[in-house]
Amino acid sequence: MLNNWLKIAFINYKKNWLSTIINLFGLTIGLTGFMLILMHWNDEESYEKWNPKKDNIYAFQQYNPKENTYSPSISYPLADRTLKVIPEIRDYVLFSGSGMAFKMTAKNKTVYQKEGMNVSQNFFNFFPFRLSAGSFKDALKNENSIAFSTKAAKNLFGKTNIVGENVKFDNKNYIVTAVYELPEGNSVIKPEFVVLAYDNLKNDKEGWGNFNYGCFFMLDKNADTEAIQEKILKEVFLYRAKINAQGAGVTPEKYLELYGPQGSLLTPLDQMKLHGKAYWFGTGDFKTMMILFSLSVLIVILSAINFINLKTAQASQRAKEIGVRKAIGSTKTQLVLQFLLETFLLCFTSYFLSLALTELLLPSFNKFFDKEIVMNDWHIYLYSFAMVLAVTLISGLVPATYLANFKAIETLKGNFARSRHGIWLRNGILTLQLIISSFFIIGGLIVNSQVKYMMGKDLGFNGKQIFLVSFNENNPKPWLKYERLKNEMRKIQGVEEVSYGEAVAGSYRYSNSNIDYKDKTIYAQHGSMDYNYLPFMGIKLLKGRWLDPKLASDTINNVLVNETFVKQFGWTDDQAFKNEFRPGFDDKPYKIVGIVKDFNLKSLKSEIEPMIFFHYRATSWKRFNVYNIQLKLKPDDIPATVKRIKKYWESNVEPGYPFDSYFIDKQFAKTFEKYQKQQTLFTILNAMVLMVALLGLFALSSLMIEQKLKDVAIRKTLGASDGTLIMGLTKQFLWITLIAVLISIPISYYLMNEWLKDFAYRIDMPAFPFVLSLILLLILTFAVVSIKAYQATKVNLVKYLKYE
């Protein structure tokens, strides 16, 4: 029986070769997209899975409902009190820096070593890397301890057995206490060396408001995280509020409302990469991942719809076969199984083709997402094969059940071709297919419009020809270094102007704090700068004046603010110049002398925040944060100027250190990369969907028009013109297309409006994608169907009328 079923299957594949190829093509494309996105998702979910303690380690994120924002930061005293007063918490580890780099000297060798971490003492209790030499117990016991990865040890010493060896960097001597092997699995926490954040922890021991650290907590097994979060609010945040409220002259509750944080979130370590709200080491984008996965599934569904449509359209060709098989004793179950087998053979063939295509596309896919995914995870094969089985059932069971329900007497009489049941089923499924196609066209056009809008928006600054060079971290008095260099580097040929700014567009290296005026508090970004930095960046002054080096007060307590700062306090411009405020980063009042036009520092996805700017000498500590020098280059020969700057830097400023530099406009452009990739993916998916849909439509229209050739011959004999016949054959498909687009419009509007809500600066929902989708699908439907309809008008009349 099985052998007979296979023979029948291959006869039908050969007979309907066009629909077979279209089904194979559509399913292969759909399964390939599904597997690629599934591997991407699986890769994002695999971070920190290597850690044997992952189920008990939770990342801390504070929540401020006033701004509806999350932050990965905590202060040292808050973390320490959390351990002391909440019994479910067994331990904590703090991070004050990651990605550190130093020029290290060991014996007679000097190496520039990157990817270091500044942590608290019990780091290795949370991240038990495989020990190669030494001991983790006392690895970070004192301020002169350092632990190396095996790679860094070989780089510096040429071997791994280096416990007890001396290393010098940052004007200190360190002793190697441990050597470890980094995990092979995905991890964002893979330091090449680890040192104790001794000075930071010492200075911040009583700094309740110094949120300078990332934090992980070690919890008891099966601990209730929601209950712990409530305890953190009541026992830790409120405790801090009681300490500070008296000095602020408000109640603890009011202090929490003004300064926060008012909540916390604990997320398991191995979920932070993709699901974390705010991560010290960078979060993923789960929403985009879900969108991509859903779209890949939609393409598979579209391919399954093609299959169902084509199979039901071929029903009349197999009606007599079914009637004969039923007449000789075949049951419905046997017929359903036979048709499911035929479907499975096609799906299984597509599965193997998609595996090969995925392997071919994987290098380009990895380059696109900056990953190193390989097809060595059995889960990918299991899930994709499960999808094949699901497609087999979805796309096979509907036509199989439909065909198996034919009545033997009617089919043997040839009456099936005149039944309306098959037409309604085909039209309904075709409508669903066109709804999906319309959504992809509308969505692709809206994504494209949003990205173009972001790329063309006035950012409020001009970063062209602004070249930034970063200092290394070994600067005891970096502001003096900047002041010396600014005078010397002005002399380099091709350099037009020099300045410094802490808050750089496209970078996230800036700070924020509370700003208090009477009984009102807002949070604002603050950036130290040189006198000329804002005009240097092309930022417009709306009212007041710039900072002036001739006025001593401009290096003491005078600041510039942006428009949003003034608006959030509810001041007029004149009131802003009269009022003094107290910032959380200093203990003296500050006065506004200028208001600048709003400009974007972050991605356009974020709203412009209140900002204040002041000279780096105005505070006792900001001068120590001077970390760059920025140069405006003349446009005539920029590459040659960059070479001269690099040569000067490596010879006279930081010999032996990498030349860390970039153009600010290019750095800010990186904030668009994510959305440009979404645009590219939507374009690719659009092309795939339209190709699969149009091929399916062509095959379906071909089969349906072939069933009407006798009607065409009769009408042509009675004098109908070719144009009339073509419109008659295509009219049904045009009506289906119109109905499908009208159904898709509200669905597309809702989904794309939800996507646009993520952007602070977004387009108004345009009408043209909806209109264009309708026009485009009508044109494509007419073009595809009319090709076959035109061929039908050229039928041999004798052939179709000789039996009438």
TrEMBL record:
Compartment annotation: Cell membrane
Domain MacB-like periplasmic core: 20-232, 434-647
One cellular component (GO) term of this entry: plasma membrane
Membrane topology: Multi-pass membrane protein
Recorded GO MF terms: transmembrane transporter activity
Pfam families in the record: FtsX, MacB_PCD
Keyword set includes Cytoplasm: no
Taxonomy, superkingdom: Bacteria
Keyword entries, A-Z: Cell membrane, Membrane, Transmembrane, Transmembrane helix
Transmembrane segments: 21-41, 289-310, 335-358, 378-403, 424-447, 681-705, 733-752, 767-790
Main subcellular localisation: membrane
Keyword Magnesium: no
InterPro entries in the cross-refs: ABC3_permease_C, MacB_PCD, Macrolide_Exporter_MacB
Domain ABC3 transporter permease C-terminal: 294-405, 685-796
Record PANTHER family: ABC-TYPE MACROLIDE FAMILY EXPORT SYSTEM PERMEASE COMPONENT 2, MEMBRANE COMPONENT OF TRANSPORTER-RELATED
Protein name (record): FtsX-like permease family protein
